[in-house]
UniProtKB/TrEMBL annotation, chain A:
One of its GO terms (cellular component) is mitochondrial inner membrane. It comes from the Eukaryota. Residues 43-140 form the Large ribosomal subunit protein mL46 N-terminal domain. This is Large ribosomal subunit protein mL46. Gene3D superfamilies: Nucleoside Triphosphate Pyrophosphohydrolase. It comes from Ridgeia piscesae (Tubeworm). It is found in: Mitochondrion. InterPro entries: NUDIX_hydrolase-like_dom_sf, Ribosomal_mL46, Ribosomal_mL46_N, Ribosomal_mL46_NUDIX.
From TrEMBL, chain B:
Belongs to the mitochondrion-specific ribosomal protein mL40 family. One of its GO terms (cellular component) is mitochondrial large ribosomal subunit. The keyword Magnesium does not apply. This is Large ribosomal subunit protein mL40. Pfam families: MRP-L28. It comes from Ridgeia piscesae. Keywords: Mitochondrion, Ribonucleoprotein, Ribosomal protein, Transit peptide. The keyword Electron transport does not apply. It is found in: Mitochondrion. The lineage of its organism: Eukaryota, Metazoa, Spiralia, Lophotrochozoa, Annelida. It comes from the Eukaryota.
Length: 280, 188
């Protein structure tokens, strides 16, 4: 008897509600369902910064690039006409021939004339006075991983030794989002809090470039009220300044190339961050 | 003016206007003269065009250096013909290079695809967590432009290096249009 009654009651209630509210009433049980799912799978939202130092110098050419650039230079020379400098050299040779003959009289202009070869020597001497900076730096010699001046021809990313739970991990500087912040603002704050405000960074837009999630241990789950963290990475380029990663939650930093990441970070973490570190 | 209450005095629209100016009547002889002048100028242009055809604006890049053209015959490079081995090795290198570049291109596309996919996943995850945060994430960053970055260079810059003044003639034409102070790019 109860079942048919309930079937009768429900449509009446919803139609009354809709008439009162002037819109379609949402069945109550659907809301309940959604909220219950929410509580069971609560994740902490975390923003992280992928701070990149772009290559300062060009990459050295490999074998085939070297060979091919030599070939291109050769072809360019073959297709070219003689330059002014080469014409001058030909004139020099011609003049030297004339000087040998007996009826040659030297004009004033020819006395002070500088030959093409002499000019080249002068240019070479001038070039010798300038010493360009070395492509390898002091940091390379010492293998100083904390220096931003290492491996000038590669892209470097910043990792910090951050305390997550009880242990320290090498991760990109990260911080949970606070209420009212956007994810990008949280990322900016993370860098400021963990690496000091000396490091200038230019952020690459508002959208995250990568994602990684991990679960907390049981103890932390109850403490935080979330089963794990969802980390969203935001890209930024280093504009200048120094990273100073000292504080209660962080102990030291490293500038690593994409290939070096595996040595220091968790394997699955490295796999995720390697996806968006574009080294071309 | 108003008719009800002295405080509600106000000037009507018509009071703001200036009296209309009287239109001057043009002298007929001057008008005729002006028309004749216009016609003569047009006729002159037409005659010019018929005589010479359309005169094109000179383009510096196409014109080239006159001096070079005059001495062209002196500037021919005398080359020995290529040996068989040399031309074979060149052809081989070209083929190797093509394969190398193809592979490089494929790697680049792969890397870009992976990075794009990574971002798509991140955005989707963010949307699943919160629609509001997602909407904030897809906003265009207006402070990003103008973006400037230098490098990479062949040798790193020497810190504190004082550049000596060299001799050079800068013939580069500047097409830089300065933006007004505080200008921001607007979106439609």
């Amino acid at each position: 008897m109860a079942a048919p009654l309930r079937r009768l009651v429900v449509p009446v209630r919803s139609s009354v509600l809709s008439r009162i509210l002037g819109r379609r009433a949402v069945p109550c049980h659907r809301w309940l369902h959604v909220s219950r799912q929410c509580c069971a799978e609560q994740w902490q939202l975390v923003s992280a910064v992928c701070l990149e130092r772009f290559p300062v110098t060009t990459q050295p050419k490999n074998k085939i690039e070297e060979d091919f650039s030599k070939l291109m230079a050769k072809l360019e020379l073959e297709y070219s006409h003689l330059s002014d400098h080469e014409l001058r050299h030909l004139e020099d040779l011609h003049l030297a021939e004339r000087r040998k003959s007996e009826e040659y009289e030297e004009s004033d202009a020819e006395v002070v004339r500088q030959t093409a070869v002499e000019a080249e020597d002068a240019w070479d001497a001038e070039l010798q006075t300038f010493q360009p900076a070395s492509r390898t730096t002091e940091a390379d010699a010492k293998n100083d991983l904390t220096s931003v001046d290492r491996k000038l021809d590669k892209k470097l990313v910043l990792l910090v030794n951050q305390k997550l739970g009880d242990k320290n991990y090498w991760v990109m500087p990260q911080r949970p989002r606070k209420e009212g912040e956007s994810m990008r603002q949280a990322a900016e704050e993370a860098l400021r809090e963990l690496c000091g405000d000396k490091a200038e960074a230019a952020y690459m837009g508002n959208a995250p470039c990568g994602f990684y999630k991990y679960k907390f241990p049981k103890k932390v789950q109850d403490e935080v009220g979330a089963i794990g963290a969802k980390v969203f990475f935001f890209k930024a380029q280093l504009r200048g300044g120094q990273v100073n990663a000292t504080g209660p939650d962080v102990d030291g930093h490293m500038w690593l190339t994409k290939d070096e990441l595996n040595e220091y970070t968790d394997r699955s973490y490295a796999e995720h961050i390697r996806r968006f570190i574009v080294e071309l | 003016m108003t008719q009800c209450g002295p405080l509600a005095f106000r000037a009507t629209n018509m009071l703001n206007a200036e009296p209309m100016k009287k239109k001057k009547k043009a002298d007929m002889t001057i008008v005729i003269q002006r028309d004749a002048k216009k016609r003569r100028r047009l006729e002159k242009n037409i005659r010019k065009l018929e005589a010479k055809g359309r005169k094109l604006k000179p383009i510096e890049e196409i014109e080239g250096n006159r001096n070079m053209l005059k001495t062209l015959s002196m500037r021919v490079r005398k080359l020995e013909p290529l040996s068989f081995e040399e031309s074979e090795s060149r052809a081989l290198l070209m083929k190797q290079w093509t394969r190398y570049k193809l592979q490089q291109h494929a790697n680049e596309m792969n890397t870009i695809q992976t990075a794009m996919l990574s971002q798509q996943v991140a955005l989707q995850e963010l949307r699943n967590e919160s629609e509001e945060l997602y909407q904030q994430a897809i906003l265009i960053d207006l402070e990003f432009i103008p973006f400037e970055r230098q490098g990479p260079v062949n040798t790193p810059p020497i810190s504190g290096y004082d550049v000596p003044d060299g001799e050079y003639v800068d013939t580069t034409k500047s097409f830089y249009v300065p933006l007004p102070e505080g200008y921001k790019f607007k979106l439609k």
